[in-house]
Amino acid sequence: MVNAGAGPKYLSVREHLRRRVAALPELTLLPPEPVLCAEYGVSRITLRRAVDGLVADGHLVREQGRGTYVTRPAIRHEYRESFVHRIAGFNSVMTEQGAQVGTAVLTQRVVPVPALVATELKLEPASDVVELVRLRSVDGTPNHVAHSFLPADAYPGAVDADFSQGSLYDYLRREYSADLAHARIVVDVGTAAPDEADALGVVAGSPLLVVRTTVRDSGGRPQVHSFSRLRPDVSQVEFEVSVGGR
């Protein structure tokens, strides 16, 4: 039986099933609906809603006369930041791949710099930064929540700019001729807080990929620090590395 925890029960069932099918060989048939309903302690309607989500995401396939079986979702779009040839933001890369990118601005304000951000941006503790939090989606599916921080003195107009579409990096280049030359990217794992889980359509406590990026100019001065918290079931992080400047 599933412990629903925070959020609708079908989301808990979907998350349990997603982890379960990820460990199964492709083409494995799922048990019949009555068996799964009894196992998870849910109604047939709740189970079907959970399975519908996994079918839509490409984890399962329903076939008349055969049942529901495991497949592997094709990753059509990759979360990619190239730091060899250019610093390209999520919006630019996804758009180039033919994806429909959606952006909802959740927070846009000037705040005192958080301690960890001050370290990354090499700012004094009394400094202010522009904080920008956006929910990003790909082809209608929530993908990640992006938190970006910019020195308020260097980029004062960012607090009023329209970031409901387009790239933050493109904005900085266009409006401030920003020299975005190098990026340091660190990937680790976190878990979804309740409000974050609701925005991303996952169960609270679900694992998330956390991608932390600090972008510097050609002189090594930090310009932007961001961290994105991604759904691992619909995201892939790719790094491109070049040796000898090629």
From TrEMBL:
Protein name, as recorded: GntR family transcriptional regulator
Which keywords label this protein?
DNA-binding, Transcription, Transcription regulation
Question: What superkingdom heads the lineage?
Answer: Bacteria
Q: Which organism is it from?
A: Blastococcus carthaginiensis
Q: Where is the HTH gntR-type domain?
A: 7-73
Q: Does the keyword Nucleus apply?
A: no
Question: What CDD domains does its record include?
Answer: WHTH_GntR
User: Would the keyword RNA-binding be found if you checked this record's keyword annotation?
Assistant: no
Lineage start? Bacteria, Bacillati, Actinomycetota, Actinomycetes, Geodermatophilales
